[in-house]
Amino acid sequence: MKTMKISYRNWILYAFVGLLSVFIWFRLTYPQLAFVDLSVDKDKALKKANEYLISKGVDTGKYNKAIVLGHDFWVDRYLQKTLGSSKEEEFIKKYNYDLFYWSIRFFIENQKEEYTVKISSKSGEVVWFAHLIEDTEKRTTLEKEIARQMAKDFLVQKFGINFSEYDIHEEQAKKFQNRTDYVFSWERKDVSIPWKDKTGDSVAKLLFGATVSGNEIRSFYKNGLDIPEKFKRYVQRQLTFGDLLAKISFLLLFFWIIWSVTNIITRKNDVLIKRPWRLFLFIGIILFILQLLYSINNFSEILFQYPTSSSLVSFLGNTWIMLIMNAIFINLLIVLLGISSEYLRYEIYPDKKKSSFLYYLNSTIFSRDIAKSILFGYLLFIIFLGLQSILFCLGQKLLGVWVDKIKLTSLSSSYLPFLAAFIIGSQASLREEIIYRMFGISWLKKYIGSSILAIIISSLIWGFGHSTYPVFPIWFRGIEVGILGIFYGFILLRYGIIPLLVAHYLFDVYWESSAFIFGKSSAYLFISSITVLLIPLFFAIIAFIKNASSEERKIESVLDIHQKYNLEVLLSFLSQKRKGESSFDEIKNELISHGWDKVIVELAIKKVSQNEY
């Protein structure tokens, strides 16, 4: 067996590349992270929204509340595509545009009337408000001129708008059974951001607006960019195509599942099927529990989607049933492909034991070798960040690539963002490395015959499975992740599964919490995010201190009674064949072709050839 150890020369080489990657990341990626401002946390936003409604005479105590962090993704997409990332930041600063905001919903079960307040995550200002009421509610109908002046007076008082800088954008009267509401919006004269495509030109305008219903300003917003419909259709076409690419990638998994089920059934008594099944069942159960914990931790997002036209119990019941069914399916897939991956690794890469979990199941995970592998994983994580920064820089300059910033703050709505980051990192690293590296590479090598092609193809399947991510052009995400996957595959076959799992975990946790670390956020979010990134290091310290032997247990010690009986039968058979004309290789191939367990056959041949029987 090749040791797959990390030499001092490798440490020096990768450390140098790591330092270079830090420099590249700092120049290319850090400015985008520092741009995020979450100075106002969830509790402060909820307090401000509550105070605002109380000031309007609303009894907030009788309402259910749900709060999530919002991201104006259409504006983000449009500005990145038309202006570019750096000019987008200039635009946002110049016009004090709130790309991120807290949305707080006040609602009552089975009642249409509700309130939604949006609070700037940067300043704590109320930047958007809506009061939803019954269509049949009776209110005084004002003259349009009076309603318009009422809206203007409110916007001047609320935001200090100088209407000499604005032109009227839209005036609309909405007639209901017992009232007429007026919708007004104004566009800033000096802002006109063009969009050009084959169907013609259009522009985005910067708006303020308000809705007047009787004597109430029923809704208002500060700084809304009116995105051209042609741009939205352009993006939607890409998103649809990305969804198709992801589904095609996912369909290939069904073929792998069928192969795995067939393999497990036909080889159910083999050592490489019976030995690891408990381990992968344990992994599947842990991932299942983590997935449910993630949903509980993000319950506010679920509650925010509740339609008051249905009962809350029915809505939550349907939601949780779907979540549980999805978790069962996904993690059953992990168990099946995980078990088969051990069988394939033994057959295809017998000298690369550390590229699977079975080696550590038969030895230990508390050795200094493990500690070194974890530290190496940190180094690989830094290198992967640098590589991704280069890929996105080239994509932006050569292909016009742009990326939604929503990923930077997607966990802010969680009750415990650090727990959500830990769960995402753990799930993604274990699931994806088991499916696409441990199983995918070995399976493709078995039928293609080339490790290089196996790594490339499995990486592309994995990459285009990420095509639903908001990275544009939509196909670029598949290429970017696919290139990273090629390096992942090399690491697996050269250094084993542990450094790869660590690097993958850190990579995902970093992207889920980077805005908390490098942007403006609370000390709690900063410290908890750093702690989650340090979890593998804590484990490495424990492994280093325990310093258990990494020597594998002999295979005989893990055989069950039936496998031991088969071993004895083979030993007796082979001892009789020792003086025959057939070589052990010929006998081995014949026995395996007749369904004998390869591990038992090789063990018996080894004992007989070494005169141990």
What does this entry look like structurally?
With 613 residues, this protein is α+β, with helices and mostly antiparallel strands. It is 61% helix and 14% strand. Strand 5 and strand 6 form a beta hairpin. The strands form two sheets. Strands 1, 2, 3, 4, 5, 6, 7, 8 and 9 form a nine-stranded antiparallel β-sheet that branches. Strands 10-11 form a two-stranded antiparallel ribbon.
- Backbone CA Rg: 30 Å
Oligomer: single chain
Total beta-strand segments: 11
% residues in beta strands: 5-15%
What is the terminal separation in angstroms? 24 Å
Kindly state the percentage of residues in helix: 55-70%
Q: How many DSSP helices?
A: 22
Low-confidence stretches: none
Instruction: Give me the secondary-structure category.
Output: alpha+beta
Largest sheet: 9 strands, antiparallel
Shape: elongated
The mean pLDDT is 92
Topology summary:
Elements: H1 8-28, H2 30-34, H3 42-55, E1 64-71, H4 73-82, H5 85-94, E2 100-107, E3 114-120, E4 126-132, H6 144-159, E5 166-175, E6 180-188, E7 193-197, E8 200-213, E9 216-226, H7 229-266, H8 271-274, H9 277-297, H10 299-304, H11 312-348, H12 358-361, H13 368-399, E10 402-403, H14 406-409, H15 417-448, H16 451-464, E11 471-472, H17 476-495, H18 497-518, H19 523-546, H20 561-577, H21 584-593, H22 598-609
Antiparallel strand pairs: 1-2, 2-3, 3-4, 4-9, 5-6, 6-8, 7-8, 8-9, 10-11
